[in-house]
Amino acid sequence: MSANAEPREGLVIGGHRFVPMIDAAAIAAAVGRLGDEIRASFGNANPLIVCVLNGAALFHADLIRAIGGELEVDYLRVGSYDGGMVSTGRINFTAAPGTSARDRNVILVEDIVDTGRTADHLRRYYQHKGAASVAVAALLYKREADITGHPPEFLGFEIPDRFVVGYGLDYQQQGRNLPAVYVLDAGGAA
Ligand code: IMP
Question: Which ligand 1 atom sits nearest the alpha carbon of residue 56?
Answer without folding.
Answer: 10
